[in-house]
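A.,

Following up on our hallway conversation. Structure tokens first:
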């Protein structure tokens, strides 16, 4: 079964956690713990380019969206392949992540494959994703980023 991981860092380069990826019959499961984040609700997305240049992580490009859908799990014309439910960081700055994305795969070549020629990144945003508005759900600045590796 294909697998991968993404080590996320903040704008200062500090590791905030690692997410492990496993292929399942229902999609790709992302599990792990993130620490050192501001308490509250944060958007988390897959981004189209496997680059995480600090401080703003703009190098990760837009959301991973090979089907050219609209953003948001609640958008009737969506979602992007890289959209997830929000994560909620506790008062201690940590969150356990356990999300499954049925729109992507860790297989080598098919549409939705995360190991395409320019790679894919996982990005945590400063604010809550409203799950409706294009292109990013008004989720704010990118505060942590990790490139998905095999």
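Then the amino acids I'd put at each of the 150 positions:
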């Amino acid at each position: 079964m294909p697998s991968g991981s993404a080590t996320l860092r903040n704008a200062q380069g500090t590791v905030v956690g690692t997410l492990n990826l496993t292929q399942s019959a229902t999609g790709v499961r992302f599990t792990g713990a993130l620490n050192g984040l501001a308490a509250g609700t944060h958007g988390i997305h897959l981004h189209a380019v496997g680059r995480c240049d600090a401080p703003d992580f703009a190098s990760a490009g837009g959301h991973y969206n090979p089907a050219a859908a609209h953003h948001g799990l609640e958008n009737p014309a969506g979602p992007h392949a890289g959209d997830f439910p929000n994560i909620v960081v506790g008062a201690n700055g940590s969150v356990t992540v356990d999300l499954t994305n049925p729109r992507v795969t860790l297989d080598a070549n098919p549409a939705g494959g995360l190991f395409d020629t320019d790679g894919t990144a996982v990005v945590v945003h400063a604010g809550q994703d409203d799950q409706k508005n294009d292109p990013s759900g008004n989720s704010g600045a990118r505060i942590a980023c990790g490139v998905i590796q095999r």
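The chain has a mean pLDDT of 95. Curious whether your intuition agrees with the design.

B.
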